[in-house]
Q: What sequence folds into this?
């Protein structure tokens, strides 16, 4: 027992009784001066009416004076704000302090110092190989193999994920994460490394991009004028952030890749029909590609020298 806090507690209770702290208060709570867990009873001599804040202070001093599970749980119960009468009567500092006391006491208990029963239970479970956990895992596996249960579970998950408040929460968290410095570059590099090193992932993503059902869904979505407008606005906003020189570099790379691909195919595709590239046209494209490559090389050199 901490005698300093115990004496403070007794003096505080005596002061509350002498000053009749309960007068003029609309909301009062009954407090056991000697807690029932320590042998106290419900007699009038052992009870005092206190306002919520004074009641909280009394349990805080008790928890400091006698640090054990009974006093810490009683202190934790003081933060049950389900009652409308308790709302707004406690500040964040008081909550933090009392939670720290509770956490410290519970941590000491869970180390096994004061809980031989818990230690015995864990020893028995270790010997038996935790049968309850194994049973629970088996039950979960059975449920996941049940198509009816799985369909119901997926339906509930989709319904919960499509709620406006959930979508708004996800959107805010995503914007906050992407706003961090270097986050975009880090994610871009991570995806490049994954495409380069994980062949299974790359193959899976290629199949998805060529999936006709997925393409049809995207096309259907893009028919919506509101969706097109939003995509256009986002694209324009992203383009406005790119410096003019970088825009030109990106444009040249796209033109070179596109025309190189055309030459490799040997035809132009117009309205679903293939038209062979003539020799004269091929020479023109090659000349353009050489000019673009030269310009791109000069721009990249200028960018490196900055």
A:
């Amino acid at each position: 027992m901490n005698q300093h806090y115990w004496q403070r507690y007794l003096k505080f209770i005596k002061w509350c009784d002498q000053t009749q702290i309960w007068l003029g208060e609309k909301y009062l709570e009954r407090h056991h001066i000697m807690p029932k867990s320590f042998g106290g009873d419900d007699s009038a001599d052992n009870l005092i009416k206190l306002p919520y804040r004074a009641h909280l202070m009394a349990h805080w001093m008790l928890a400091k004076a006698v640090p054990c599970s009974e006093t810490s749980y009683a202190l934790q119960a003081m933060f049950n704000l389900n009652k409308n009468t308790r709302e707004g009567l406690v500040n964040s500092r008081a909550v933090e302090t009392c939670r720290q006391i509770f956490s410290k006491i519970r941590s000491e208990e869970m180390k096994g110092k004061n809980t031989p029963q818990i230690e015995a239970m864990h020893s028995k479970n270790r010997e038996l190989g935790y049968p309850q956990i194994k049973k629970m895992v088996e039950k979960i596996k059975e449920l996941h193999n049940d198509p009816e249960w799985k369909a119901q579970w997926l339906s509930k998950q989709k319904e919960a994920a499509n709620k406006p408040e959930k979508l708004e929460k996800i959107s805010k968290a995503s914007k906050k994460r992407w706003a961090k410095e270097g986050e975009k570059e880090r994610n871009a590099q991570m995806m490049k490394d994954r495409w380069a090193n994980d062949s299974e992932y790359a193959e899976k993503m290629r199949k998805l991009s060529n999936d006709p059902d997925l393409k049809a869904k995207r096309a259907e979505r893009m028919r919506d004028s509101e969706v097109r407008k939003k995509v256009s606005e986002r694209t324009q906003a992203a383009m406005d952030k790119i410096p003019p020189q970088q825009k030109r570099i990106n444009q040249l790379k796209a033109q070179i890749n596109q025309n190189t691909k055309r030459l490799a195919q040997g035809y132009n595709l117009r309205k679903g029909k293939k038209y062979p590239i003539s020799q004269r046209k091929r020479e023109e494209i090659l000349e353009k590609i050489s000019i673009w490559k030269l310009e791109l090389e000069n721009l990249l050199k200028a960018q490196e020298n900055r």
Residues 242-306 form one domain.
